[in-house]
Amino acid sequence: LSSFTFPFTRESGVPLSSVLPRMLTVYPQTKSYFAHWKDLSPGSPPVRKHGITIMGGVYDAVSKVDDLVGGLLTLSELHAFMLRIDPVNFKILSHCMLVVLSMLFPEDFTPQVHLAVDKFLALLALALAEKYR
Amino acid sequence: MVEWTDQERTLIANIFANLDYEDIVKPDVSCHHSLCLRCLIVYPWTQRYFGGFGNLYNADAIMNNPMISAHGVKILHGLDRAVKNMDDIKNAYATLSELHSEKLHVDPDNFRLLSDCLSIVIASKMGYDFTPDLQAAWQKFLTVVVFALGRQYH
């Protein structure tokens, strides 16, 4: 587990904030959740800021890896009752995170690291969807 | 019929022009750009289709398995067919789809897993050149391919 936390600790969060704008471009259907922002272009400030918020949440979850469901309880409630994001989008965002990680760390993002991060993100998504029903 | 903009056609053609199939499947000691059927490692249940391919015991075995590398090249050449027939991928893939359904009995969800791994390997090779616009065109192409491959299943 410690081998895959390094991309998150080494990363200042700024390049990883590009994950959200990338997702909005590659999977335009995800823009439906952000209709309250007029500007959804990649350079848009609210989009970049929100990208940092999300990646901060993912980084936090790394420290809760031994009890994701318990650790993410309030976030799950937020996504279930307030944001009401279809959980299929967690998979889409996870894929975009993996793409950006492999771009940023081509040498270190080995198949084994890929496996570990993918597994972690899948469990994170499950924990986030815990309160949906 | 899928509509492709000129920009999308150019972007996708560029990816293939810069792709060295042999390079992308062989294990590289200094870095791990290789496709090496990466999905066999990341999604181990996909190994079920490769019983006759020798040693798949661990990640190293998979990465150094020549039969797996050769198969990776075969799959990439299969994608060639889609690029050459972008305006009718559905029909270009009809026999391939039947093959995967009737003979190989591959669960179509595996096409999506492989295409995700392929995107990640290409991203690691291209770095910042794998822009969101490029990824969008590429993702659209892969979605069409995956759909066409699954079309003849019944």
TrEMBL record, chain A:
Gene3D superfamilies: Globins. GO terms for cellular component: blood microparticle; haptoglobin-hemoglobin complex; hemoglobin complex. The keyword Heme applies. InterPro entries: Globin (IPR000971), Globin-like_sf (IPR009050), Globin/Proto (IPR012292), Hemoglobin_a-typ (IPR002338), Hemoglobin_oxygen_transport (IPR050056). Keywords: Heme, Iron, Metal-binding, Oxygen transport, Transport. The keyword Amino-acid biosynthesis does not apply. It comes from the Eukaryota. Residues 1-133 form the Globin domain. PANTHER family: HEMOGLOBIN FAMILY MEMBER, HEMOGLOBIN SUBUNIT ZETA. Belongs to the globin family. This is Hemoglobin subunit alpha-2-like. It comes from Myripristis murdjan.
TrEMBL record, chain B:
The gene is HBE1. Pfam families: Globin (PF00042). The keyword Iron applies. GO terms for biological process: hydrogen peroxide catabolic process. It comes from the Eukaryota. Belongs to the globin family. This is Hemoglobin subunit epsilon 1. PANTHER family: HEMOGLOBIN FAMILY MEMBER (PTHR11442), HEMOGLOBIN SUBUNIT EPSILON (PTHR11442:SF7).
